[in-house]
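Final report, section 2: Outcomes. Of the targets proposed, AAA domain-containing protein is the one most frequently requested by collaborating groups, and we therefore present its record in full.
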Amino acid sequence: MLTRSALSTKPFKVQAAAQLLATTSDTVRRMVDESGIEVARQEAGPKTRLFSIENIFELARYRANRRSKSAKKKQVVATVYAPKGGVGKTTLASNFGTIFALKGLRTLVIDLDFQANLTLSFGYDSELTREEALEQGISQSKIVEYHFGNLIPGYPSSSGRITLQEAIKKPYGEYGPHIVPADLNLDRLDTMLTYETLEGRNADLILARLIKDGLSKKDQHFDVSEYDIILFDAAPAKNRITRGALLASDYVISPVSMEKFSTKALSYLSSVLTEMHDQFDRSPELIIVGNFFDPNRVRVMTQLMTITQTYRDAWLESSIRRSEDFPKALTGESDLPLVLSKPSSQAAAELRDSADALLNRMGLIDG
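The predicted structure is given below as C-alpha cells.
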C-alpha cells in the first residue's frame, strides 16, 4: 500500500524506476519479484506497477546488499562547500546525497547552513510550527525540532543532548538518504565554538572528534558507524562550523559556476586547506565540480582551461550544464531533489554522471 508520504508525489512507472536505478525495466521487475518488496498496481487498466519513492530506495538497497561482499565497505566523510554563493552548492548537495542512496549507499546528509535550503529541498520547512502543521493538516514529522548543534556535547539547549536517531529525518523511508536538518538556531553552535576558542580550547577539532567517535561507536549519542558516506552541506560564509566540517572530512566537494568563475574563490579555498594541513597535519582532498557549464561559450572554455591547468588533480571530469529545471528546485516549486522530480531530464542525467565520478574518485565504487 502507498503511504501518505509516498503519495505526496506522482508514483513512478517501471521505466522511471529503471532510470533512477540506472538499470533496465526487466531488471527492476525481476528485483521486485525476487525481493518480495510490495509495489502497488494501477487500479484500472493494465494493472501497471506504480513505484513509490520508498520502493525505489528499497530496491536500491536490496541490489546493494545482494552485491556486497563480506569485507566492510570504505566509509567517507565529505563536505560540499564553496567560498561564495550562487554556484549551486545546495542543489548539488541534495541531488548527490539522493543519488548516493540510489546507489544503495547508506547516506547521511547534514545541513550546516542556517538558511536551511538543503532541509527545504527534502520537504522540511524549518519555519513550520506545530500549530501551523496541525492547522494545515501536515504531518508532525515534517516539523524541524533539532539540528546538528543538538548532537554536539556541551551544546547549550534546554532539551539536553539528543541522539542521532532523534535528530534525523527520513524523507524517503529507511533506505533513502537520512537528513539532519537545520534552522536559524544552528547559529548558536558557531557562537559556542567561538566561546570554546576564547577559553583556550581547540574548537576546530570538535566536529572531527565527534565524527571519529561516532564512526568507531565510541559515542553512542552519535553512532554513525552504519553509514557509508556522511555529507555535510556547509554555508558559503567562513565560520567555525564550516572550518570544523572541513577538518572532519576526507574530501571537500567544491562547485564552481563556469559562468561567473572567479579565481579568487578557489585560490582562497586552496589557501585555507594549505593552512589546515600546516596547522593540524590534516585537510580534505579537494574535488572541483563544474556547474552551469556551456561548451559553446568561449568565456566558459577559457575558464575551464584556467581551472584544469591550475587545479588539474582536483578537477572532476564530469560537469553539469545550465538547465531551466534548476531554478524550479531552488524556488521551492518542488520539495524533491531534481533527480527524483525529473529523472528523465538531461540535468538529472548529468547529475548522475557527476555523482558516479565523485563516488569513483572517493573510492566508494569501482570505475
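The longest strand covers residues 285-293.
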